[in-house]
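INTERNAL AUDIT FORM
Audit reference: QA-55
Scope: verify that the stored structure record matches its stored sequence.
Auditor: D.O.
Record contents follow.
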Amino acid sequence: MKKEYKIIEQHCGHVTERIKACKRKHIAEALKQRLCTELDLGCHSEMIKNVLNKYIDDIVKKTFDANGNNIYLEN
């Protein structure tokens, strides 16, 4: 799995930090689409795309509360 994360980081940068910088969940979801597009431009592996989707979904689940607010950022 480590190889897949290296490929993702190479094409998308630091995904965790990018998602955690979003104030609201809907912004993170839009960023997810952008990250998938960035990855698709340089990597056409469906497996890598699936890993990215699951990885981002996990980060989003841990980062945003039920109201869609980032739990790490102040209001």
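Auditor finding: record pair retrieved intact. The mean pLDDT is 91.
Action required: none
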